[in-house]
Structure formats: C-alpha cells, structure tokens
Amino acid sequence: MAVLREWVFGTQRVSLEASDILWIKVRGAFSETDVRALVDVFRELGASPEKPLYLVVDLSSSEGLSVAPRKYLAEHVSTTWFRAAVFFGAKRTHREVLRALVVALNFIRDTKLEAEFMDSEAQARAWLEAHRRRREAAPG
After folding, report:
1. 3-state secondary structure 54-70
2. Is the separation of the CB atoms in 70 and 101 below 8 Å?
3. Average of pLDDT values for 47-75?
4. Residue partners of 12: CB distance under 8 A and separation at least 6
5. Res 140 pLDDT > 70
6. In contact, 35 and 11? CB cutoff 8 Å
7. 82 in Cβ contact with 112 (< 8 Å)
8. What are the pLDDT digits (tens) for 110-128?
9. Burial readout 89-122 (b: 16 or more C-beta within 10 A, e: otherwise)
10. Which segments within the chain are labelled E, that is strand?
11. Sequence-separated (6 or more) residues with CB below 8 Å from residue 10
C-alpha cells in the first residue's frame, strides 16, 4: 500500500498508509523523546474515539521500551484512539512487556484495545485485513 505521509524521529519511522492505518518501524531503543514525538503524531492525526486508527508496529529491529517511555505512553495515550493494534517481529520479552502495557491501559481506562502479536509483516497485514472485514460485516 502507498504511504500517504511519513514522520521520522531519531531512528524511528512512522507512516500513514491509509487514512486510518499507522505503521511504526521501531529501530533500536524507543526513547522517551521518540515516544513524545509519536504521541504528537497521534494528536496531529486527530486520533480519538471518533476517529480511531489501526496501529501496526514492526518490532523486528527493536531493542525495547524502557520504563520512562512506557510510563509516558500510559499517561498520554488512550486505547480509545485505536481500532486495534498488531505488533510483529517482537522478541518474547518485548511481547510480554507490550502485553502488560496493553492490559494495564485497558484496566486503567476501562476499555478494550484488541492487540495481536504476529511473527511477520505478511501475517500482520493478513490479520489487519481480516479484522477490517469482520468489522465491516458486523451489524450496527
């Protein structure tokens, strides 16, 4: 799919692939500065419960997310901004940290962000398309 818009901060790359699909390519450590820039992107795109985004995150080159960036995300991001999130290429430890973060955000915000973990980009794309089809087929 074609990239509509792109942001680069540090070694991180964020791409808007469709009006509601945001791809994040994490390279190395995701710093608090990177996380702040990412939250600014969410705000710039108008992410909200009325305009939720699909979030697709490539963690194949990630070195993880330390405590300060996780805390910033927990304090400044709402799970209601996202239709769903799919992560791929994550090491087992990164999956566990992200699962815990999603559970904590869902609990704190009393919401239900659907988050999946895949091994590859192809699997993430297939999951995303299947999720879209399910939503479109759902009544109401």
Report:
1. EEEEEEEEEEECCHHHH
2. yes
3. 89
4. 24, 25, 26, 27, 30, 34, 37, 38
5. no
6. no
7. no
8. 778 788 999 999 999 999 9
9. bbeeebeebbeebbeebeeeeeeebebebbeeee
10. 5-9, 12-18, 21-29, 53-64, 82-88, 115-118
11. 28, 31, 33, 34, 37
Q: Burial, 6: exposed, middle or buried (Cβ in 10 Å; 0-12, 13-18, 19+)?
A: exposed
DSSP element (H, E) containing 2: none
Give the CA distances from residue 100 to residues 41, 52, 93, 115, in Å, rounded to whole numbers and listed in that order.
23, 21, 11, 11
Distance between the two ends of the chain, CA-based, in angstroms?
28
